[in-house]
């Protein structure tokens, strides 16, 4: 891959990165963030980055995304439990 050509996996990774940054900005901006928006966006970002990292393997980052996704799933499960 050259600097002037971004393949599909890299583009997917950038979308995932944008999701995670957006979720963090949302958390910082809102006084009472919606946990479904926060953790759902983080999970989507981790999933998209994982797709990119499976194609362009970077093991430390891939492991980090696994933990990021697990924490997001935990947050979603907690939000579902607290909802009802």
Q: Explain this structure to me?
A:
- This protein has 84 residues and is mainly α.
- It has one domain.
- The chain is 81% helix and 0% strand.
- It contains 3 helices and no strands.
- It has helices spanning 8-29, 35-55, 59-83.
- α1 runs antiparallel to α2 and α2 packs antiparallel against α3 (59-83).
- The longest helix has 25 residues, at 59-83.
- The termini are far apart.
- The mean pLDDT is 94.
**Structural class, from secondary structure content?**
mainly alpha
Q: State the major sheet.
A: none
Beta-strand percent range? under 5%
Helix segment count? 3
How many strands?
A: 0
Properties at a glance:
0% strand, elongated, mainly alpha, 84 residues
Write the layout of secondary structure elements.
Layout: H1 8-29, H2 35-55, H3 59-83
Helix pairs in contact: 1-2, 2-3
Structure summarized in a few sentences:
The chain has three helices and no strands. It is mainly α.
């Amino acid at each position: 891959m050259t600097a002037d050509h971004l393949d599909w996996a890299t583009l997917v990774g950038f979308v995932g990165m944008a999701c995670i940054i957006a979720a963090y900005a949302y958390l910082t901006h809102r006084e009472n963030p919606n946990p479904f928006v926060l953790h759902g966006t983080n999970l989507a970002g981790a999933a998209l980055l994982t797709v990119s990292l499976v194609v362009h393997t970077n093991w430390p980052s891939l492991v980090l995304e696994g933990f990021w996704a697990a924490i997001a799933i935990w947050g979603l499960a907690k939000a579902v439990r607290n909802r009802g």
